[in-house]
Amino acid sequence: MEAITSLLAGFDTALTPINLLWALLGVTLGTLVGVLPGIGPALTVALLLPVTAKLPPVSAFIMFAGIYYGGMFGGSTTSILLNTPGESSSIITALEGNKMARRGRASAALATAAIGSFVAGTIGTLLLTFAAPAVAEIALQIPPGAKFAIILLAFTTVSATFAGSPLRGLISLGLGLFLGLVGTDNQSGVARFDLGFPELLDGIDVVTVVVGLFAIGETLYVASRFRKGKADVVPLTKGAHMNREDWRRSWKPWLRGTALGFPFGALPAGGAEIPTFLSYMTEKKLSKHPEEFGKGAIEGVAGPEAANNASAAGVLVPLLTLGLPTSATAAILLAAFQQYGLQPGPLLFVTSPDLVWGLIASLYIGNVMLLVLNLPLAGVWARLLLIPRPFLYAGILVFATVGVYSLNNSVFDLVLLGLLGVLGYLMRRFDFPITPAIIGMILGPAAESQFRTAVQQTNGDYAAVFTQPLTLALVILTLAVLIIPALLRLRRAPAASTSGHTDEVD
């Protein structure tokens, strides 16, 4: 009942004319960047961090939430009409969606994706409304040592999940931890890793790091691989619509996809890739038309799109209650909280209830706005795919540079931005994930602070910190995340070697 009362207060905040305007701007911009290949909500929020620094926090986060949900909606357009997923979570949608489009059923594919996103987003937000306060109350009872272990678990799971090689993920994480430690130590007052530059005594601005690694690095990477030639876009001249048979075949996949997506989004590094794949496989097994899979089955679009959007709502549970990001966009949102001097976690529900509940309420409003924007205007969004890539990324480069300079009017920040951009490009070039670096930079100081507090509470007894039952269980789980995959790879290697030797003998 308390959650409902708080949500109603959140609607009072979200339904003010100015916040409705920010919500509309967010969902429109989110849909736009979701449609454009290679530009997702994470990159967009990163670009807007410098611009929104002077906005009230509630308005800024309502817009960011709109961009996040809108990006999930818009990503289906690229996958279906261009067969080019904007994000990894839209890969499964492209399998059946583009096949439907080439059979002349692009409108139905876009409609089931949009309505499935609306259904999943609304149910996911409803679950967020009641789950978040409960998790926040439990989180208040967690001791500092266990909080340190939770962050440690997040580090390892994110590093292992966001890269083909866990080692590369851990190297990226280490880089982020290093960047987070630059500056003056708050406890001892000692300068760390400042390289003699007084500008680094206050640390590296998280916005500069995020924009440099994401926006500048992505722009350089795309430019290095740009090839001339027109995109093969399936034409769409009308809005999206479905017939009665499409509705009959879609509503159950929408619900099943939602049930899979939300819990995975809430897990550390659960992400949207796994539930979208599981949803696709589930629908393939349960479908009465299995012969259509691989040729354009509508269930193969409805289920994964619902799972994708439900996971987006699930991601907000650990972010708001524990301060733990489980996706790239959540990591950027965490940076946005820090920009405003806020720390997501259980106390956020007490210290900034208008922000938390205004944000949650805006998700309901944004979902309705997105449905209205996406169904009748599908043809308009599809035309955005014809924008030349050089113009698009040149604009991103200019916008990122001006935005970072406007923060402190510092040429040093621009030099740092350029260096981080080159680093971001090299990471993309050699397949090092960027998300662990961002998470390491943001959560590294928090992990250090929790560990120091835990050690102080045990009077310097390090063993006592790790033998506390909850902390010990989390540390064991962290080691398991690191060790078990490595052991499985070692076990497969001799088997593959033996198989190859047998083939040679034959």
From TrEMBL:
The keyword Transmembrane helix applies. Signal peptide: none annotated. Residues 20-439 form the DUF112 domain. InterPro entries: DUF112_TM. Pfam families: TctA. The chain crosses the membrane at residues 20-49, 61-82, 108-132, 138-155, 167-184, 204-223, 315-337, 357-377, 384-405, 463-488. It comes from the Bacteria. The keyword Protein biosynthesis does not apply. Keywords: Membrane, Transmembrane, Transmembrane helix. This is Tripartite tricarboxylate transporter TctA. It comes from Deinococcus malanensis.
